[in-house]
Specification:
Helix 1 packs across helix 9, helix 8 crosses helix 10 and helix 10 crosses helix 12. This protein has a domain of 179 residues: Rossmann fold, CATH 3.40.50.720. The protein is α/β, with parallel strands linked by helices and 399 residues long. The longest helix is centred in the first third of the chain and has 22 residues. The protein is globular and about 70 Å long. The chain is built from 14 helices and 16 strands. The strands form 5 sheets. It has a 7-stranded parallel sheet, with helices on both faces. It has a 3-stranded mixed sheet with strand order 11-13-15. A two-stranded antiparallel sheet has the order 5-6. Bound molecules: nicotinamide-adenine-dinucleotide.
């Protein structure tokens, strides 16, 4: 049996990952370490906390004593490190906490893992580690900076035979630019958030070089799916449509992101933990480049359809069904330093490990919208209190 330390397991992706690996592996024990910031919610992992295979510990990844205690108490085999301050807008407001958690917190975890996993030294003076140990660092495509948008209309993307694997129910992949990020793209972060993630990636890699520490880094594109905190684009749009509020879209909505269904991401992480070559970085993308404005329009259309076809959901709707339309969109002043385009090239994980994003965007969005319609209690629970003040600060005076 393996013991995983999952940091940030009460957050969006960490919570989905805990669900995924509990279903996938019987012989596993999971220790979840989460500070429960505004973004962490025990409601996300309520069922999983009743599972005898999980332990939850509330605490800060930067707390040396606490993390050492966990390594003493549990024989941790794998650290899966999700915990982070993750919202770009918040990093523009208050960069310091991003450095504390994302950089120093990560270094603390590395240092404790190194200490507990080391058994001795090799002839070169490098630490030797107990077998089967791995530190998996979850990072982002934002460390690569921003790509240019070269095409006003998306062009067909023909990549590495992956298109065939994507299945017939998906529209062929498209792209807005000539270049994509691969693992060799120089790191060029541009926001306090991405700068802090870049620094954390580099310290992980530095432990690999300097101490031969066993690690993998995965860099993924924008995730979407259940349990996503409604400050991020897709869940925010769903929430606002239901409440009949305006849908704030930065600038002209032309920024391009690649979207990855969260469960596909969890599968990729599980695969890299099991089969990824130590010391390697793997990019994980959804083959789904889209402009923000088109995402918002799709969300509006899907909600409108659900409301027409499944009247039971109308009890959550605060406006008449006919008012669910693109008039809800409100363009707001652009984010400072807003990156134009991200696009991930996941060729390496596809060809080396056989992973590919299985979820077609349209069906992923349908699943996501339906999940939010069925889980309004969760939304209400996570968006009380501080969230309301934050929302007012970000969008209150704009438009
Ligand atoms: N969401 C995305 O689209 C996306 C894309 C690329 C990369 N990532 C990366 O994936 C990881 C998870 O992202 P997410 O969207 O699930 O984030 P999230 O904000 O939903 O969750 C982060 C979790 O970390 C916890 N946390 C924060 N600071 C902590 C600390 N000091 N100690 C312990 N726990 C702490 C929070 O309570 C929360 O549960 C992050 O590292 C993020 O940079 C996310």
């Amino acid at each position: 049996m393996k013991t995983y330390l999952v940091t940030g397991g009460a957050g969006f992706i960490g919570g989905n990952f805990v669900k995924y690996i509990l279903k996938k592996h019987d012989d596993i024990r999971i220790v979840i370490l989460d500070k429960l910031t505004y973004a962490g919610n025990l409601g996300t992992i309520r069922e999983e906390l009743n599972d005898t295979r999980t332990e939850f510990v509330k605490g800060d990844i930067g707390n040396r004593e606490l993390v050492e205690n966990l390594f003493t108490r549990y024989d941790i085999d794998v650290v899966v490190h999700f915990a982070a301050e993750s919202h770009v807008d918040r990093s523009i407001e208050n960069p310091q906490i991003f450095l504390q958690t994302n950089v120093l917190g990560t270094q603390n975890l590395l240092d404790v893992a190194k200490k507990f996993w080391t058994t001795g030294k090799d002839e070169g003076g490098y630490p030797v580690y107990r077998p089967g140990k791995k530190f998996h660092h979850v990072s982002t495509d934002e460390v690569y900076g921003s790509l240019t948008r070269d095409f006003s209309q998306p062009q067909p993307l023909t990549l590495y035979g992956v298109a065939q694997k994507l299945g017939e129910n998906r529209r062929p992949p498209q792209t807005f630019g000539a270049k994509m990020f691969d693992e060799k793209t120089p790191l060029d972060p541009r926001s306090p958030y991405s700068a802090s993630k870049t620094a954390s990636d580099m310290i992980v890699a530095a432990y690999g070089e300097t101490y031969h520490f066993p690690y993998n880094i995965t860099r993924c594109s924008n995730n979407y799916g259940p349990y996503h905190f409604p400050e991020k684009l897709i869940p925010l749009m769903i929430k606002n449509v239901l409440e009949g509020k305006k849908l704030p879209v930065y600038g002209k909505g032309e920024n391009v992101r690649d979207w990855l269904y969260v469960e596909d991401h969890c599968k990729a992480i599980d695969l890299v933990i099991e089969k990824g070559r130590p010391g390697e970085v793997y990019n994980i993308g959804g083959f789904n480049e889209a402009q923000n404005i088109d995402i918002v329009k799709l969300v509006i259309a899907v909600i409108a359809r659900f409301m027409k076809e499944q009247p039971q959901y109308r009890s959550y709707l605060k406006i008449p069904v006919e008012e669910i339309n693109e008039n809800l969109i409100a363009f707001v002043a652009d984010r400072l330093g807003h990156d134009a385009r991200y696009a991930i090239n996941p060729e390496k994980i596809v060809t080396e490990l056989g992973w590919y994003p299985e979820t077609a965007f349209e069906s992923g969005i349908e699943k996501t919208v339906e999940w939010y319609l069925q889980n309004q209690d969760w939304v209400n629970e996570v968006t009380s209190g501080d969230y309301l003040k934050y929302y007012e600060r970000m969008y209150g005076g704009r438009g």
